[in-house]
Fold this sequence. Notes:
Layout: H1 4-17, H2 20-25, E1 27-35, E2 43-46, H3 48-61, E3 67-70, E4 75-77, E5 80-91, E6 94-107, E7 110-118, H4 121-128
Parallel strand pairs: 1-7
Antiparallel strand pairs: 1-2, 3-5, 4-5, 5-6, 6-7
Amino acid sequence: MTAPLTVITTYFDALESGDFATVSATFADDIVWHQPGANRFSGVHHGSAAVGELIGGMMTVSEGTFTLARNAPLMVNGDIVAAPVHWTAKRAGAEMDGVGVDLMRVADGKVAEVWLFTADPAEEDAFWGLG
């Protein structure tokens, strides 16, 4: 079985390089994704197809500019990996530059559950638009 740190490193390497096929391949079919805030993407998303639609929607709204990268080392506690992250995005009339923490649980060599935390939920809600 693949170690949680290896799985999450693969996920972030792919995400940071724009390799969304590999990003998707790291997800369990029944992944559960907890997206914070009160915007169009907020809530709990179930299944790899739904999470793919979420990420695709963010790329569409941000006109392809959304980027997210690790900004400190990954930290592991059993099957949970904490990832301090930084993201940016632009669209007509708006910009976003934020930080947060992604907690990712790995099971059977796949990302099984994700909890996202943002330092400024109001900024994200304003950028993504109300749900």
